[in-house]
Amino acid sequence: MAITVHLPGPFRSATGNQAKVEASGESVAEVLADLTRRYPAVKALLFDTRGEVADHVCVFVNSRDIQTLQGRATQVNEGDEINIIPAMSGGAPAPWTDDQIKRYSRHIVMPQVGGKGQRKLLNAKVLLVGAGGLGSPTAMYLAAAGVGTLGLIDADVVDLSNLQRQLLHDTHDVGRLKVDSAEERLNDLNPDVQVVKYPTLLTSDNALEIIKDYDIVINGCDNFPTRYLVNDACVFLKKPLVDGSILFFEGQASVFQPGKGCYRCLYPAPPPPGMVPSCAEGGVLGVLPGIVGCIQAIEAIKLILGLGESLAGRLLLFDALSMEFRQMRLRRDPNCPVCGDTPTITDLIDYEEFCNGVGVGVAAH
Ligand SMILES: [Zn+2]
């Protein structure tokens, strides 16, 4: 029977630029085999050298990961859709001042926030990894909303090529440290906010020390070693992680809550070096990080206020070209090397080495 297979941007060069194609079969294995018969170039993107679905690629039937079903033996029926999703490169309270009452009035009038919620926001400490494309909207909206302490980690200086999307920085900031221009912007926006600057690379040596002081971590990094480092550090310190990533016209966002799964449950291993281009190599649409960063900011505020249902347990996918949001269900993997039942990684590792293709001990996916 004919099954629709949705393909991510990086795979579409292999399908004549089609985002979805038809393939036939009674099981996931048969559909994928038919897919690679019709589009042979998909094979190298989808499977590893053992002929298994590569560790950095997840396959979903409708919104369910086949790992939670019967793997590649999962049966498919007429009308089912297969989604192929690869990994992609945040004492007694002081009395309110008149200015604060006015500044936060649109929050304070909402029964779901109120003065109590606004106080929670002012007392919250959120760490942003990266003051770039994703970090810009996240930091600006959190500062505007009155999140009292914002930590910013970024070792870079502002480059002219950043300004197409990184709204924290201005043309006259080119050459300055990003954390310095970000601090100026955020303090202009809201003087209530204390900005804590870390003009350094996050490493296995400093990550635990920095992250331990924060309530929530928001990941807006642009590389796989940092993405895995932040994930592992948050697992070890039991910190909620709001993850986001972008490439070309597509974005991903999720929330990882302590004890309920992590980024490695989704992607046990990074793609081989060079397979997934960075934004610098592959490009990224200017507005895209605004969408994904704002989603991260909303998720952080919901966590602080204890409101609604977070993205925990779900992977949100955004495709700007089709203007579609889709969601995949995520689950904690009991075999996860960091958050599983018997973790094999219990301390931070060398993430450069792990991401350069010599990672060992990762579960097949
Ligand atoms: Zn995990």
Shape category: globular
Q: List the helices and strands in order.
A: EEHHEEEHHHEHEHEHEHEEHHHEEH
- Superfamily at the CATH H level of the largest domain? NAD(P)-binding Rossmann-like Domain
Can you identify the CATH class of the largest domain? Alpha Beta
Cα-based radius of gyration, to the nearest Å: 21 Å
- Side-by-side strand order of the widest sheet: 8-7-6-9-10-11-12-13
- Number of distinct helices: 13
The CATH architecture of the largest domain is 3-Layer(aba) Sandwich
- What is the quaternary state of this protein? single chain
End-to-end gap? 26 Å
Q: Give the low-pLDDT segments.
A: 358-365
Task: Assess the beta-strand content as a share of residues.
Answer: 15-25%
> Which fold does the CATH topology of the largest domain refer to?
Rossmann fold
Helical percentage: 25-40%
* Major beta-sheet overview: 8 strands, mixed
Mean pLDDT across every amino acid position = 91
Structural class: alpha/beta
How many separate structural domains?
2
Main features:
365 residues; alpha/beta; Ubiquitin-like (UB roll); Rossmann fold; 2 domains; eight-stranded mixed beta sheet; five-stranded mixed beta sheet; binds zinc ion
